[in-house]
Amino acid sequence: MPAWTLTPLVLPLRYTWKISRNASTTKTNLLVRVEGNGSYGLGEAAPNVRYGETPEGLQAEFAGLQRAGLGQCTSLPELTCLLTNQPPTYALRFALESAFVHWEAVRAGQQVSEWLGLAAPARQVPTACTLPIMEPGAVAEFVQAQGLKRFPQLKIKVNQEGALELLREVTRLLPGHQLLIDGNEAWPDADSLLRSWERIRQLPGLRARLLEQPLPAACAPDYRYLKGRLGVPVFADESVTDAADFTDIARQFDGVNMKLMKAGGYLNGLRILRETRAHGLQTMLGCMVETSLGIRSALQVSALADVCDLDGFLIVQNEPFGLVQEENGHLRVTK
């Protein structure tokens, strides 16, 4: 029978990670390990405050799953059944499923992508790199210190109050650089976003690839109204849940950002990517603040993504695993 363990990982960050709803200088993720028959698999959980996830809560859920028979699951269908009957938070579900899938792939002598029936990831996968919310006067030093010019795309975290000036400074420093603009639900409604965007779109040198989840997920009518009005593809993030109607998602958005950590595992993540494609939408692969363990997992499904934003491990100071290497804005799995 497989043996499972859960270990907290306290991760100091290289800089303050600020988005529209919170800021932090450390993250506590959790390392899941499953082993048996001479091999093992690892998974990572990155709790997300947006969904009420905490390290302590995930540890309590893991203990409950242990009592419910986690150690008796010897196949992915058995594990899926347990996690369906006693559902944990999405981050923990992903860590458990990822660890199990990686364990199964090792035992089968296959790469994870092959075991999942997917095309192998490219040898070099281009990724965006994220600039968190900061004062415009700090941007130049940050861009230089982090070497952001080497990335083919930059993701810019914004809030309603400071978006215009932050983007003005980014486009002044990096005119024509392709930007992914992420609002993290910062605008309350369509009218406020339209007013802001009319000014933003006039910035000299602005080259916006996409605008991600600018309004709360509850604002579906506003998103339907905005579809096609902004002159930039709008991508869903928080709006895509297990209960999402993709026909309606397609009425609201032009693309979907799928994060395995938020999807709760490979199986649901692949479902979301395939539904996205089936409804004619663009696909994006994102991440939380994760180590290279979580990013390596995400890279296994990167062949299905039009855009990759997998820089979470670059935010971590003294990243502990070294499973992914970044060079000139491209990622490759090292082991």
From the structure above, extract its key features.
12 helices, 14 strands, eight-stranded parallel β-sheet, Enolase-like, domain 1, globular, alpha/beta, 335 residues, 34% helix, three-stranded antiparallel β-sheet, 2 domains, TIM Barrel
At the fourth level of CATH, the homologous superfamily of the largest domain is Enolase-like C-terminal domain
Outline, from the CA principal axes? globular
The biggest beta sheet is recorded as: 8 strands, parallel
- Mind telling me which CATH architecture of the largest domain this is? Alpha-Beta Barrel
* SSE topology string: EEEHHHHEEHEHEHEHEHEHHEHEEE
In helices, the fraction of residues equals: 25-40%
**Helix vs. strand class:** alpha/beta
Q: What's the pLDDT, averaged over the residues?
A: 96
Sequence stretches where pLDDT stays below 50 over 5 or more residues = none
CATH class of the largest domain: Alpha Beta
In total, the number of strands is 14
What is the CATH topology classification name of the largest domain?
A: TIM Barrel
Output the strand order for the largest sheet.
Answer: 5-6-7-8-9-10-11-12
Query: How many helices in DSSP terms?
Result: 12
Radius of gyration using CA atoms only: 20 Å
What percentage of the residues does DSSP assign to strands (E)? 15-25%
